[in-house]
Amino acid sequence: MKTIAYLVVLLALVGCTPLSKVVVPPTNGTNPEKGDYLIGVGDQLSIKVWRNPELSIAVPVRPDGRISTPLVGDIIALDKTPEELAEVVKAKLQKYVRNPEVTVIVVGPRGEEYTDRVRVIGAVAAPRSLPYQEGMTVLDLVLEAGGVTEFAAGNRALLYRADENGQKKAYPLHLDEILLKGNMATNFPLQPLDVITVPERVF
């Protein structure tokens, strides 16, 4: 019993040791304060041009993040709010229409269960792709995958997250510290489209 108690105290003390050089990944996407909806691939948009029904259309956002509209042609819609996209369309239509009034409405939001997912791959018991849920953390996703394998290099795991320009960046995770020592310094909250990779040890 004394040995077990000693181990519990030791793990608790080790778990409180801060990790050096922890890089916290930035958040992105919907602004939680403003609640702005960012247009995504697969969204169905209704674009109305007042007093110009021939320019008013319903259009999906293509996989390349663009939409096609009369007169204007291709426009990047991805990661814009409906209001921002309406301003872009308005600015481009001014070459052809006097004082255009444009509104954009998302009439068919993309299926979040398919596009807003989180993934863990590599040296885990069961690599998974799961629908994102509010409040999910690195530990939640790793446990959903059955934990790391005996060959995993947990402290060399990486979290890949797209920045505001859509470029994927890697952030170090210390899964061994989380799973074995209870040190939660890199147990980051997840965001949709995050990917965790767990490499194997080099023998």
Question: Runs with pLDDT <50, length 5+?
Answer: 1-17, 30-34
Taking the alpha carbons of the first and last residues, their distance comes to: 36 Å
Q: For this structure, what is the CATH class of the largest domain?
A: Alpha Beta
Which structural class should the secondary elements be placed in?
Answer: alpha+beta
Largest sheet: 5 strands, mixed
Element-by-element helix/strand order: HEEEEHEHEEHEEHE
The main sheet orders its strands as 7-6-10-8-9
Strand coverage percent: 25-35%
Q: What assembly state would you assign to the polypeptide chains in this entry?
A: single chain
- Report the principal-axis shape: elongated
Radius of gyration: 23 Å
User: Which superfamily, in CATH terms, is the homologous superfamily of the largest domain?
Assistant: Outer membrane lipoprotein wza domain like
Number of helices: 5
Number of domain units: 2
For the record, the CATH architecture of the largest domain stands as Roll
The CATH topology name of the largest domain reads: Outer membrane lipoprotein wza fold like
